Amino acid sequence: MEFFANFAGAHQYGQPTRMIMEQIRQYFVNTVTLSDEDWRYFSSKLIRQEFPRNYLLLKEGQTEGYLSFIESGMVRFYIPKDASDLTFSFAFDNSFVSGYDSFLTQQSSTYNIEALTKTTLWRLTYDDLQSIYANTAIGNTIGRQASEDLFLKKSKRELSLLNETAEQRYLSLFREQPRLIKLIPLKYIASYIGITPQALSRIRRRIS
Fold first, then answer.
1. pLDDT, tens digit, for every residue of 43-54?
2. 3-state secondary structure of 33
3. Which of 66, 82, 169, 192 is deepest in the core (most CB within 10 A)?
């Protein structure tokens, strides 16, 4: 994941695009044999897009068309409900984000993905990623890193629900993202850790 983190930082400080691309390339040179032709092919497929706060990156019923990396911002995954949305995951900067089950199967998503803040993504389309797999040595590296990142998030979430109390889940999220968690509405955090907003308020008062 380090190459994307370096890329994001370089971009924010206005370094030339060529220098940023060389940082990305150097990361891969350390792990795979990367020809000039492969590199040109891969880098030509990356799309940088910015989205405003509350933008729906993926809607229930749509098919996920992108594997994305968050340069900056944060997103939430939720199942829309009449009474109250069920928030089940967040993703923050320097991590992959995708409706990955929908992306892999090219079937309709059963949930929404929303940008909670202004969010900048680097994206590969489904078709472009398949083309990278087929035509470059770098494709398997990207696919493996993305799938491992997304799987570990899912596994961590499931184990947290089984083994931790609501207070422990809140404290874990706070430790991981102390700056960004302040920007998430409490109702979303409460839904994520499986309690009511009132119960979350009591936890926050007790540990403050």
1. 889 888 999 999
2. coil
3. 192
